[in-house]
Amino acid sequence: MFGLRRRSLVALPVAAAMALSLSACGNTDDDDSSDESGSLVIYSARDQELVEDLVDRFEEAHPEIDVEVHYGDDFGVAKVLEENAVGNVQPDIYWSQEAGSLGVLANEGVTQTLPENITSQIDPAFTSDDGSWVGLTGRIRVFAHNSELIDEAEVPDTIAEFADPQWAGRFDLPPTNATFQAFVTAMRLVEGEDATRVWLEAVRDNLPEGERPSNNGGTLDLVEAGTVEIGLVNHYYLYERAAGTENGLDDLATRNKIAAVGDLGSMVNVTGVAALSDNPAALTFIEFLLSEESQAWFAETSFEYPLVAGAPTPEGLPPLTDFIDTNAKFDLNDLSDLEATVALLQEVGLL
Q: How would CATH label the architecture of 11-138+269-317?
């Protein structure tokens, strides 16, 4: 197995991928990777340092399968679509960090339809509605806040409140980050284009002067340092940070607040996988990721919500069922409309 060094996710490669207009031709007979049942090629948008251990566990469980993993933006959606355009899709698996990119591949006809015994393991609110991909883990949007600067009761209960001038200079967010862009896409779907533009313009005016953080981790850094009181991030970054300290959360000033039930501020985006070939090893890998062992690994190691029914909820978090009503307001497949989101963020000056 080998990987390529991961680069930071930026908006323009995502936008370029979404802008491509390609015919859906899928894998062809001359795709070497799908002809070899003893091999498996994976393109992973998930960080190598986060999931490499799980891939190693798969290899130990299936020594008969030669696994080759490519990590990072160079092997993202744009790469798959470029290969699809010439009828030569290389990976058997695409492993995504959010639902939008999986929706793009499904819309282009690149994905294989997964069997019901796989797709039925996940609540419909957290996976595709047509079997084109399956959700693996969930991450909640939260309002991370510095508890030494602001009490939780003072932190907004809804995402709409951040448009209020009283929050000017007091919070930050990463506009180039894929999960923030997915949230904006969900807002466009639920609230409409005009309402989302108004909110973004107000938020833009409320953000501190200077450059925006590039990712969730950088946003959390600003909160923990007290540079801002609140950061709009995914829930698990705080728990990953706490795991690296001697006394866990007790060593940190940051805490998470989850938005009111039903509010888009607590939407759940998902990681997931799609099979891009009929290689039997692809289904073997997906079944492994949905296994009890792997789902528990996600909860204990990455602090994400396992999506298989009955899997353990990460300690200290509310049950995933609390967020079904929020996610029922939009279709995860529709988060693929990132091109329009990027254009809107550029229009309002956040990119």
A: 3-Layer(aba) Sandwich (3.40)
